[in-house]
Specification:
single chain; alpha/beta; rod-shaped
Length: about 230
């Protein structure tokens, strides 16, 4: 009798808790698939690889060459800006070069102009010298010539004066010495313009000594000593 009065699991009325849903519940889970068990290891390996690549990129500097998707649109603008700056730099350099060439050309033209002016001045001076030389070489038979007789021969100065008249001289006079006389026969002339005439007088009279002298009364003086 006592055994039959003992309460067991079957003594109670069945309820919703006596029919649980199929499958694992609570802390009691069923077996997991191989892919789900391997997923944490795969994630750890991927993170380790990414960390290694990041460290290598920073250490080697290759990370600077890495182009991000959001920087792809800025690159052409930057490239265009750099090209524009490069073009401006080249234009400025070319302008400086052209300016330097222009300055050099101007300096060269100025030097050429200066050289041309100097050449013109030298040509004018040479022309003046040539004119003076021509004037000096002209024999003027109308120049006054005085023949002085410093010998003891009477009429000797007049005879030489007649030779000059016959040669074409129109203003010749003969006289005796009034002061000191040279040591030898000489033809004196006062100005450089009378040099050619004095030399012609000396050649006409057979005299080789021709000298320039200051303080003469007449442009050309012939002193006869032999």
């Amino acid at each position: 009798m006592a055994k039959q009065d003992k309460e067991t699991y079957d003594s109670y009325e069945k309820d919703v808790y006596d029919n649980p849903p199929a499958g694992p519940m609570g802390v009691h889970r069923g077996a997991r698939s191989a892919a789900s068990r391997a997923m944490p290891y795969v994630i750890v390996i991927i993170v380790a690889l990414l960390a290694g690549l990041l460290f290598w990129g920073v250490y080697s500097g290759e990370i600077n060459n890495l182009k991000m998707p959001w920087s792809s649109q800025e690159s052409p603008t930057t490239s265009s800006t750099e090209k524009s700056k490069s073009g401006e730099s080249k234009s400025k350099s070319q302008a400086d070069s052209d300016s330097a060439s222009g300055n050099k050309t101007d300096a060269s033209n100025a030097d050429s102009s200066t050289d041309s002016q100097q050449n013109d001045q030298n040509a004018d001076q040479n022309a003046d010298q040539a004119d003076n030389a021509t004037a000096q070489q002209v024999v003027n038979t109308g120049t006054e010539v005085r023949v002085v007789n410093a010998t003891n021969i009477t009429g000797y100065a007049q005879s030489k004066a007649d030779v000059l008249v016959q040669a074409g001289y129109t203003s010749v006079s003969a006289s005796n010495p009034t002061g000191n006389v040279p040591s030898q026969t000489v033809v004196w002339y006062q100005n450089e313009t009378d040099k050619a005439t004095a030399e012609n007088v000396a050649q006409t009279l057979g005299i080789s000594n021709v000298q320039q002298s200051d303080g003469l009364v007449t442009p050309i003086v012939v002193v006869l000593l032999d």
